[in-house]
Amino acid sequence: MQLKPILLIIAIVTFSSMVHANEHDQFLKAEKYLAKRQYSRFINVLPNLQAHPLLPYLESQWIKTQFHKKPVEQINEFMNVHSGTPFASQLQRSWLKYLGKKKEWSLFLEHYQPTQNLTIRCYLVRAFKAQGYASASLEEGNALWSLGKSLPKACDPFLARWKKDGLLTSERYWQRFVKSVENRQYKLARYLQKKLPNKLKKQAGLVRSIWRQPKDIFRKKDAAQLPVEARAILVTRALKRFPELAQKASLETLIADFSDAAHKQAQYERFTAFAKTPNADTFHHYKEAADNGLLDDELVNHFLNGAVQNAQWPTYAYLYKVAPQHIQQEPKWSYWKGRALISMGAPTPNAAPYYQIASKERDYYGFMASQALQIPAAMNHNPTHVSGDVILQTKANPAIQRSLAFLELNRITSARREWQHAFDHLDQDSRRAMALIAGRYEWADRAIFTLAQLKDWHDLQLRFPLAHAQHFSQAAQRTQLPMDWIYGIARQESAFQFDARSPAGAMGLMQLMPRTAQSVSKRNRLRYSKKSLLKPQYNLDLGSRYMKQLLNRYDGNRVLATAAYNAGPGNVNRWLRRFEGPMDLWIENIPFKETREYVQRVLAYTTIYSYRRGELQPIMDNVTLASWAHSAEDTLQISKNETQQPPKG
Q1: Closest CA to 543 of 444, 475, 468
Q2: Can you tell me whether residue 610 is helix, strand or coil?
């Protein structure tokens, strides 16, 4: 049963193109003239663009060409009219960088606004100093120095002055070194180490060595002699990576001289480590954490999770019993309470009430509980409702008009920037209207992210759009994969941002790494084009073929194939050797948090897309269950009818 279309918008307003093609042509022509410094032609075109939403962008670019004339009044007027807009902020940053580069310090301070831009902040330090505000200059310089990050060249002059004035002491270098290690700025850390005197240089080498091998904090004799701020970051890292180290008797010695805040943080990490490695002392640790005022919700969750991951069911049952009521009601913990009872030999009816609590929610654990009860998964769809007047007013908002104009010009980054600006300055009803407008423009990722920022989770038509439906259908037919699963992967990978690029280099709807895409192309005797990875059809074709390849590798097990899509087959094979089942517990024991949550979300999204496309499927399909050699038949069953019809309404 496909959800009903958003009839409200269509009935109220016709979404024709906001800007005629001719006007866009005039805009592009003016932009080209400006870039080529053909200023007279640029000025001649401007009268044709007075109604164009993007005219302020041309005006701001024109002002930038006049910086050498110091057009202060023009800039002030522009900023007053357009204050806070993306293009005004860009103009201000360019103006401040220009003034800083030209050492126009009086004008710089006159126009300065707080920013996180490091180059401008470096100029601010110098401007304060040049204008006689020495204490303000030192304070801002200290703030930059303490970031523990590489600073831009604009900072070099004031750092050279600091060195000449004797302000770059070994203590300052050491503090910055420790912060750079904590921030994983390893190149900077190596540089700073060279600036330290011999004694601190040796300690810095020890810090870097222990950072690479955290267990050495307990092994190396000199570790206890490290300055307290270095030990603090090393102890925290060691406990996070190796929870079993919390049992070390020498831990108290290492943290004894910490400040109250650092000692409390170390103790918190210690109890977190205890929670992750449950044993006979778990109840004692739980009570001790409570007695010390450290038992917040996050730590309670760690204790519960540790018991689940280690299949310590009696321990889990007790911890669940003493947990706060609001935590007991969470789908995850109520699901695992039911599982714990079954695993301890209780009859199925005893577990049913806990499964029923979880099954009311539309998430991974709710769907797992529904399958355990052999009932349809709850979808709780609730369409977004906004009055027609609000939709019209929102669509007329200048930032929305600019965003949609950029969208029509296929300048997606600029379109998203203006969209976010509009969201930040509108009320809740107008924000909901934005989600509806994005849906009508088939701008899937903005509909998804707009509702996510609103924390409005129940409009499944907008949050799980059937984007690029024809391409998904073709991919499913070509590979004989369930279209719902392909949608689930794409929804998690990119939220349908076809131009998405990850820091690691993954590209497109399915976030394919170029090397993987090339391998899939070669395997399927297809022509490879890295540039085409940002084209939805091409990306889906290769991504779905890779999914098929993984599914075949794991004998039809969708769980393992999904995990491998995110973390690679090598990791999945290693995890299988370490822990084999049952399947829900295997998922819970995936050591990479990112992959664990990825698998859970893809499974849940796949179920939701089955509902969106008219045939509600259980979260675990028969083939996946059958291929899992160690699945527990009494805890994970599929209903007799593999296809569950969605509830009406």
Answers
A1: 475
A2: helix
The DSSP line for 205-258 is HHHHHHHHSGGGGTT-GGGGGS-HHHHHHHHHHHHHH-GGGGG-TTHHHHHTTS
- Specify the amino acid at residue 257: D
Angle (CA) 598-600-603 rounded to 5° is 105
d(CA 173, CA 191): 10
Burial of 566 (0-12, 13-18, 19+ CB in 10 A): buried
Structure tokens at 147: 């970031």
Q: What is the pLDDT of residue 579?
A: 84
Q: Which residues contact 599 (CB under 8 A, 6 or more apart)?
A: 559, 562, 563, 566, 587, 590
**Closest listed residue to residue 117, CA positions, set 78, 84, 90:** 90
* CB contact at 8 A, 366 and 404: no
* pLDDT in the model for residue 629: 64
Cis peptide before 582 (omega within 30 of 0): yes
The pLDDT value recorded for residue 569 is 96
Question: What are the mean pLDDT values of the chain's consecutive 10-residue runs (649 residues total)?
Answer: 38 47 91 96 93 96 95 95 95 97 97 96 98 97 95 96 95 96 96 96 97 94 93 93 88 90 91 93 95 96 97 96 97 98 94 97 98 97 96 97 97 97 97 98 97 97 97 97 98 97 95 97 96 96 98 96 97 90 93 97 98 96 84 41 34
Contact 550, 565 (CB under 8 A): yes
| CA distance linking residue 14 with residue 524, whole number of Å | 44
| 3-state SS record for 97-128 | HHHHHCCCHHHHHHHCCCCCCHHHHHHHHHHH
Contact yes or no for 115/97 (Cβ under 8 A): no
> What global pTM score does this model have?
0.89
> CA 432 to CA 132: how far, in whole Å?
50
Residues tagged active-site = 493
